[in-house]
TrEMBL record:
Residues 4-79 form the GIY-YIG domain. This is GIY-YIG domain-containing protein. Gene3D superfamilies: GIY-YIG endonuclease. Belongs to the UPF0213 family. It comes from the Bacteria. PANTHER family: UPF0213 PROTEIN YHBQ (PTHR34477). InterPro entries: GIY-YIG_endonuc, GIY-YIG_endonuc_sf, UPF0213_domain. It comes from Bacillus mycoides.
């Protein structure tokens, strides 16, 4: 994935919980999470694996998607990720 793309992403933590965020460089962000320098939430739940990625034209819409996702129940989050075609792409990327 190219740098400077606006992405909403979801990682699955070692305890099975989800963490959603925004980035413009997905590979670097996942490395940051797994090095223990990412969000405080993920630092205590390492390692994390990329579960879902959604590309957006701008930062605003990517962050709106993140906000919307965080309002959902766990079941709704799983349904949201299953419906998205980017779920498969995220699974391939996390296998690297």
């Amino acid at each position: 994935m190219e740098k400077n793309k606006h992405c909403f992403y979801v990682v699955e933590c070692s305890d099975g919980s989800y963490y959603a965020g925004y980035t413009n460089h997905i590979e670097k962000r996942i490395q940051t999470h797994n090095s223990g320098k990412g969000a405080r939430y993920t630092r205590a739940r390492l390692p994390v694996g990329l579960k879902y990625v959604e590309n957006h034209e701008d930062k605003r819409t990517a962050m709106q998607a993140e906000y919307h996702f965080k309002q959902l129940t766990r079941k709704q989050k799983e349904e949201y990720m299953q419906k998205g075609e980017r779920y498969v792409a995220a699974k391939k990327l996390s296998a690297k």
